[in-house]
Amino acid sequence: MAAESPLRVESREELVWLLAQACELEHGLMCEYLFAQFTLKRTQDEGLSAEQLAKVAAWEAVLVDVIKQEMLHLALATNLLTAIGAAPHLHRPNFPILSRWYPPGMQVALVPFGERALRHFIYLERPEGMDLDDAEGFAAVGQAQPLTDGDTLMAVPEDYQTVGHLYRGIEQGLERLVDRRGESGVFIGPAEAQATTEVFEWPELTAVTDLASAKAAIELIVEQGEGARGDWRDAHFGKFVALLDDYLRCRATDPGFQPARPVQPAYVRRPPDVEADTAIIGDPLTAQVADLFNAVYETTLQALSRYFVHSGETDGQLTTLATVTKHLMNWVMRPLGSVLTTLPLGPDRPGVLAGPCFEIVQPSFYVLPHREAAWRILAERLEEVADRAERLSRRAGLGELTKLAEDLRGMARDVESA
Length: 418
What we know:
mainly alpha
């Protein structure tokens, strides 16, 4: 197991670039794991026995645990950005994200739950220095970008090999900048603009205000993802290794056991920034549900971004923003994603079901920087998606959207009255 070469970080500009990459990767990994969760079968009507459903539920619990930690990692990475004076970064390229955007080996795509997905997850979460090949279909292409030589004012892409390697580069860069400028010259962002335990309820979520708290945040992210140095059993990497072993044992015992639906990620319309071949939804009803999912996803990001750029909100309003963000994720996005993966992709793809692509429409996605306008836009948007969910709930087989519509209206009322 060979250690990767240290990254060179000589300026705040380069540090912000690396932290933006970290935010995009945490965001992308969370979407990958959510997609795999959405594709899992949930009833005996889908051809599973009671024993198989119990096994699927256990695998889903592992995914949910990792997803929650990825949300925590995104919040901590955003705290690090805020701490050094930068804005939150919740943007990312649309899926699939190929290695021309990230260094070779850092490809991110949406894959149904199964052996290929689990091997890909293991590869992405592998500890520093571990030599693994990615799952079939994810071979890295292109060449690494040159390292910065320290002679430019603008950030130059760095060639990190793993997520842990990226975070160690960020940590070392912070140390160098503190040596040069002092802690008061590096950690200049407002602590009150960061996500903390009091609002988001993760006991590990703390504000980053100095080098010690920054290193603690990085250490937590790396340990939960790839494990403490040499001990990865309880980290994401170890959990996925154990999950793959269990999955392969079950499949060897019963080759007919198919825990996931035949889902393919599909767009309503092909985004202009996606060059790879992608599926387009051909079924009109499925397209409307996918559009609703994308709108809920975008609203979730807008509520979260408003939290990190807040100015003038009361403590109660900040709690409302955090609560709406969590409820959109847990009460709406998760069940809606599972509903979407039961719907047909289109008449030209018989037997294939549609999965969400977590589309970010370029460049219409926008943060909400102005307090009064932000709250009005959030309330307006929540009412719009509630109206759409209620209308779709009257369609055959979509009655479960009625509860989602009620929850969305409740969130709109909370925003309007906050």
